[in-house]
Amino acid sequence: MDKIPVHVGVIMDGNGRWAQKRGLPRIEGHRVGANVTVEIVKAAKRLGIKYLSLYAFSTENWKRPKKEVEFLFNLMYEYVKSKLPLFLEEDVQFRTIGRLWQLPDYLKEGFKEIEEKTAHCKTMKAVFTVNYGGRQEIIDAVNKALKEGAKKITVETIRRNLYMPELPDLDLLIRTSGEMRISNFLLWQSAYTELWFTKTLWPDFTPEEFKKAIEEYGRRERRFGGIKSE
Predict the structure, then answer these.
(1) Active-site choice (2, 61, 105, 169)
(2) Each residue of 20-65: pLDDT tens digit?
(3) Which of 24, 143, 210, 213 registers the highest number of CB atoms within 10 A of its CB?
(4) Domain 7-133+171-219 falls in which CATH fold?
C-alpha cells in the first residue's frame, strides 16, 4: 500500500450485542473482544502503522452495571499482564491515557508495570484509552495550563498539556458495530481525521477487514481545508 496512516484510532464497539445475539452474558463478548484486540495490534504493526489508539473504557462507561465494570477492569489487568511477552516480541510500546488516577490501584499498577517494561520498544505505540473522554482531556489540559500560570490559551498550549502530548493527530478513525458517531473519543486529535464505519461487531472484526479500512484510507485525498490537487 502506498499511503499508510501514521495514527489509527479504533472504537471497539459491539461486544455486548455480539454476546446477546448468541444468548451469552455480555462479559463473554468482552472476553472474545480482548482476543480480537491482540490480532489487530499485530496487524497494525505489520502494516507499518506507528500509533494505534484503542478505546478501552470511556468516562461514560461507569454507567454500566457494577459487575460489568469490575469484570472489564479485571479483564484489562489480565490482558496487560499476559500480553507483555507479545508486546516485547512485536517491539510495541504499551501506553495508557485518560483519568487514570480514578482507576483501582491494582489496575494503575499493572498499567505502569507494562509501560515501564515496554518503554524501549520503538516499532509501534499501542495507546489504550482508559477512563477516557475527549472533552475531559481538553478540560484537564486547560486546567493544567492555568495551574502552571498560562495567561492565554492557544492551540499549542492545549496540545502540550494533553495526556500524551507527543500523540499525533488521528489520520483514520475506525468504528465497529454499525454506530456512526465518535462518542467523545480523541476529540482534539480528530479535527481532520478520516472516518471509516463497519457494521461488523468487534468480536467478529478481523485483520483482513482492518486492512480494508487502511486501503480505503489510501484512496482518499486529505485536503485539511484546502482544495483538491490537480
Answers:
(1) 61
(2) 999 999 999 999 999 999 999 999 999 999 999 999 999 999 999 9
(3) 210
(4) Undecaprenyl pyrophosphate synthetase (3.40.1180)
Cell of 66: 457494577
Q: Which three cell numbers stand for residue 185?
A: 473519543
Binding residues: 13-18, 26, 30, 58-60, 62, 64, 175, 181-183, 194
- For the chain, what are the domain ranges? 7-133+171-219
Give the other-Cβ count within 10 Å of 32's Cβ: 17
| Strand ranges (E), 6-108 | 7-11, 51-58, 92-97
Residues near 80 by Cβ (< 8 Å), separated by ≥ 6? 94, 110, 111, 113, 114
Type of residue numbered 200: T
| Adjacent-strand bridge partners of 57 | 130
Burial class (CB in 10 A: 0-12, 13-18, 19+), 74: middle
SS3 144: helix
143 is a catalytic site residue: no
